[in-house]
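Section 5.1 Outputs to date
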Amino acid sequence: MVIIIVNFKTYQKASGEEAVKLARICEKVAKDTKADIMVAVQNVDLFHVSKEVSIPVLAEHADPVSYGAHTGKDLPESLVDNGATGVIVNHSEDKEELVDIETVIKRAKGIGLQTIVCAPSPESSEAIAAFSPDFIAVEPPELIGGDISVSKAKPDLISNTIRLVNKVDKQIPVLCGAGVKDSEDVRIALELGCKGILVASGITKAKDPEKALRELVSGGV
């Protein structure tokens, strides 16, 4: 069954109380379809959302810091304390240096926090694979939020990413994202070797998020 991570970002329909409503929809679809659905919410919404749903709730950011004088930073331990089971790292809207990515992954491993590390290219995915994240999500920035999915626009990018990641560690699942909208996008991604997708606007901006999510899940059945 396909893995689907719904990234709430800071969309109005996915913030505060609306984040809880959307997470409940994702939970309902997960229970009905048995799909592996996770939600990534703003860090300020972690505690509230995680208390309301049983599906995995991810943070959208973590800083490479430990306990101490780090004003304004997101401590990995605090994410766990507030209900996070994992964290998205290095999204194109929240880029990080390789050294910081490595540090966050190491810090997360020590406290049982899964890491879903985004990469814009096969080459960057290969470099990140050396740090042994739990997932790598390849997302070409130019297609994020667009009308055509990476699986249709750049299938070779997915294939090359999987090939290079497998050279480093065949145990790291590869996800893909950017422009994913329908079951065909998902089906192609899985046929190319992905284990799942990372999606945002296709769900958060949909007129009917439940219908849109069920459509994506059907591509992985």
